[in-house]
Amino acid sequence: MEPEREGTERHPRKVRKRRQAPNKLVGAAEAMKASWDLEESQPEAKKARLSTILFTDNCEVTHDQLCELLKYAVLGKSNVPKPSWCQLFHQNHLNNVVVFVLQGMSQLHFYRFYLEFGCLRKAFRHKFRLPPPSSDFLADIVGLQTKQRAGDLPKTMEGPLPSNAKAVNLQNDPIIQKYGSKKVGLTRCLLTKEEMRTFHFPLQGFPECENFLLTKCNGSIADNSPLFGLDCEMCLTSKGRELTRISLVAEGGCCVMDELVKPENKILDYLTSFSGITKKILNPVTTKLKDVQRQLKALLPPDAVLVGHSLDLDLRALKMIHPYVIDTSLLYVREQGRRFKLKFLAKAILGKDIQCPDRLGHDATEDARIILELAQYFLKYGPKKIAELNLEALANHQEIQATGREPRNTTEVLQHPNTSVLECLDSVGQKLLFLTREIDAGELASSRNCQTIKCISNKEVLEQARVEIPLFPFSIVQFSFKAFSPILTEEMNKRMRIKWTEISTVYAGPFSKNCNLRSLKRLFKSFGPVQSMTFVLETRQPHLCIQYEVLEAAQLAIESLDGILVDGTCIKVQRPVTELTLDCETLVNELEGDSENQGSIYLFGVSETFKEQLLQEPRLFLGLEAVILPKDLKNGKQKKYCFLKFKSFGSAQRALNILTGKDWKLKGRHALTPRHLHAWLRGLPPESRRPAGLRVVPPPFEQEALQTLKLDHPKTAAWRWGRKIGKLYSSLCPGTLCLILLPGTKSTHGSLPGLGLMGIKEEEESTISGL
């Protein structure tokens, strides 16, 4: 019996029928939301949904704010503060939370290799900026405090359990609330099919159970049907957890099956401290999984009832499906959906000591026998007898002995501002999965209530993630990459910023020597804010060079003016051609298809009364989530352009058609750049810009790496791992909140901000385009 499974519950979240507060608008009156966003109040919208329109001007999300979201997403309790920077609707419809950390990468990596990260940017609509990381990024985002680390608690102290710590209010006991106070029969203790689905038992017809065998037990069940205690031990292999021992005990305590099993795949960790299995014990074993499957099917009668503790994990290790089960971790119901450990129940109910620390690992036969006795005790004495034992008080007493302090109740834990994600998970009987390379484990790996699996490579981390993520409600998967050298970082930062300046610049011409310069300036300024406009006289006929403040304005000018007649001359409007703009057409197309830009439009020519004008016709703009009105950083005045963010592309297109029509007379198109990118580009120093067309030669060592396409080159790594993580995201169950975090880098040579991508896996997202 593995103790870590005790905290690995996926307890169901109760559906709370409460009306969500409407979204707020950024830069617009909050009252607009209630009339525009009528879709939010529709009863059919019963799935988890994110809105990140409450960003600050610099679009930066702090590590503490990330922690806010993670706690709210996992717990979803009414007394947990909602995140201050975004909105999560219908949290009770979330199934899992998964955080992928790409250690060593930053926002610079993402936009320098934007095309290579295609899978991720298409899958995640919400992106945000992160500050440069501290010394321990993961400890920050899960909220581990320096004064109170979860891993620094004292070791368990042994001591007798009191007979009864305090008076029991039986009516409030969760066992009484579920089963009543009268004795119940065996059939009442069986898990229903819905409960088995909720607690992730293998079921026929589920995609992940296609190769599972049926026990063929399909007889009618009665209160006198035979019970069998089952316990399995597992090891960690290259394909996840695999069976190493199975013990089956019949009523009366007779062990009818006790077999060691040789896994099919390479063993990475025998988990000896839990399983008692060593390499020496398993070496001579020739029994395979298929052998014990055949033996178990032969042993069980048609009406057999399997009894286990976290039995879903045992059946998954066996790769078998059985319809009639009793799970003692669920039978002995605990407050807040938590579960009692088998060792605790054996002592509190039966007065027996098991899993003793002086013994190497667990005895599977002993555990199976205890599990069976616990079920028999429940059936013999009934729920009232169990409730009178006051198990919660006994467990609290044991915690005092183990930690040296009074256990805080759930409400106190959740409301404390410095509560970590680990403590919140522990308060509801859940556990965090942490997958990482061994050399990059950090402090989180040694924290209490964290199931850490250390791997030797990123490839192994990915393989383990496929197997382990479905078993945990909250997972952190960390990949590690070699950070840029200071020289390469400086060069790439410069080239990235220059590239953005160049693709926001257009050349137009030729014009006649007698052209009206004032009219031309007015024409090009009608598409967006202009940084600079210069006359180019190096050519036979004059040309104009216009550098726009935003990429959308430059693209709109090209689309509107290229090929038109000006004073009888057909002009060409195009970007400068340099090595940094050769792929700009592809880049612009990909930016427009970016999931974050889907549903956003750019408009130029708006006045200071634009908001008020919109208020007069709210029904024309159903689905509008945000009005983003940039301001001049020097004088604080509203600029003449804005971005409107809608829930869907269709709503955005409908609004664009209206606003660029004859009634509004605005210029606009679909957005190309997310807000966090605007914030980053605004901060670039003037000296990093260059005259358009000036060539920047890549450093020789980067040229060489690109030519040989080394696997560890950042460009190749972005492409390969973006696809791999994208495929893993596709395999997650619907209703999974997923975050991709590029933490940024920090060194004595300077810091680079990070980037976060976020989304909720939808039911229809079976694949990601481009994989």
TrEMBL record:
Any one cellular-component term (Gene Ontology): nucleolus
Pfam families: RNase_T, RRM_1
SUPFAM superfamilies: Ribonuclease H-like (SSF53098), RNA-binding domain, RBD (SSF54928)
Alphabetized Gene3D superfamilies for the sequence: 3.30.70.330, Ribonuclease H-like superfamily/Ribonuclease H
Region (Disordered): 1-26
Protein name: RNA exonuclease 5
Positions of the RRM domain: 504-578
Compositional bias per record (Basic residues), positions renumbered to this chain: 11-21
Residue ranges, compositional bias (Basic and acidic residues): 1-10
GO molecular function: exonuclease activity; RNA binding
Keywords: Exonuclease, Hydrolase, Nuclease, Repeat, RNA-binding
UniProt keyword RNA-binding present: yes
Source species, domain of life: Eukaryota
Organism taxonomic ancestry: Eukaryota, Metazoa, Chordata, Craniata, Vertebrata
